[in-house]
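lol ok so funny story. i was supposed to be doing the assay writeup but got distracted and ended up predicting the structure for this chain instead. priorities right. anyway since i did it might as well share w the group, maybe its usefull for someone
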Amino acid sequence: MLKKYLQDPSNPYRKDLAEFIVKNELILPEEMEEVEQIMYSPEERQRMKEIFNKSPIMQEWLKEWSEQARLEGLAKGRAEGLAKGRAEGLAKGRAEGLAKGWAEGRAEGAREGKIEKAQEAICTYLKIKYAPLSSEWLAKVKEINDLELLDAMLVQLFQAATREEAQAVIMQTLEKADIFSFRKNLSYD
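and the output, tada:
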């Protein structure tokens, strides 16, 4: 029928039948290509393509196929881009996280080391200058984890002339550090 239509495209009956076949999807595009290869010469195939490309249903199919291909390409591109981005981001994030964690860990370790050193210096000073001093006082000094408070306390302890002044400095620092529960139970021996 399609061959007859190509021989006489002016026949409206044949044109309607050809469009009916295409419009109602009685022949699939893959089948159409096979039929074209078997039945028609290259010139006839070109003429059929022109006819089908002008067909409203073929125009609609082309739009659908084009949109479907675009969406599939977009989905594939997104998936590939996402996978690549995740891999690159993960590698970069790991490297940055490792560097940041290392730097933060090192800084925190240095700060803790300074705090321990200040606590030890204060305890050593108190043991030497005001012996005997209760181990409770020394334990409370070890609970103070604010480096600025410890530094200020050490300066004030150096300025303290008596044991009582030193104990007052320790008590004030404990209060500033919010270590109150210890205050009532401290012995001065």
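Residues 182-189 have pLDDT under 50 and may be disordered. The radius of gyration is 45 Å.
back to the writeup now i swear
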